[in-house]
Design a protein that fits this description.
53% helix, Arc Repressor Mutant, subunit A, two-stranded antiparallel ribbon, 6 helices, alpha+beta, elongated
């Protein structure tokens, strides 16, 4: 039985937290953030675009609001959700710590591709 501090979607339990890293660890929440990066959306638009149940989208949005990744404004009967990209700066800064590990690999792949391109072709 899950603890009261968990949220279930598709029988997988995720902790509900105010930690931005835990919030973005859930794939559906990342998909919502990617969609909101394209502009402001009402809940119905998010539900339709991601093919998720409306209650699940609402719960994900509540978690994203709790960590300030998303803001909401009322427009008539609709609530419009917007990405708050400034909050992702901490995540970006932390990820940059590890960039050297993959940038080195990309450089090696590029060097090999260039070496293969220069090599004489044999039939």
């Amino acid at each position: 039985m899950p603890s009261p501090l968990t949220y279930s979607h598709k029988s997988i339990y995720y902790p509900v937290t105010t930690d931005i890293f835990t919030a973005i660890a859930q794939p559906d929440r990342r998909a919502i953030l990617e969609l909101l990066a394209t502009g402001t959306h009402p809940v119905g638009s998010i539900v339709e675009a991601l093919q998720l149940p409306q209650p699940a989208v609402s719960k994900h949005l509540a978690i994203l609001r709790k960590v300030n990744l998303v803001t909401v404004e009322k427009s008539g009967q609709h609530r419009l959700y917007r990405l708050n990209p400034q909050e992702l700066q901490a995540v970006h800064a932390w990820i940059q710590t590890f960039e050297r590990f993959w940038s080195h690999q990309v450089s090696r792949i590029k060097e090999r591709a260039e070496r293969l391109a220069r090599a004489p072709k044999t039939s």
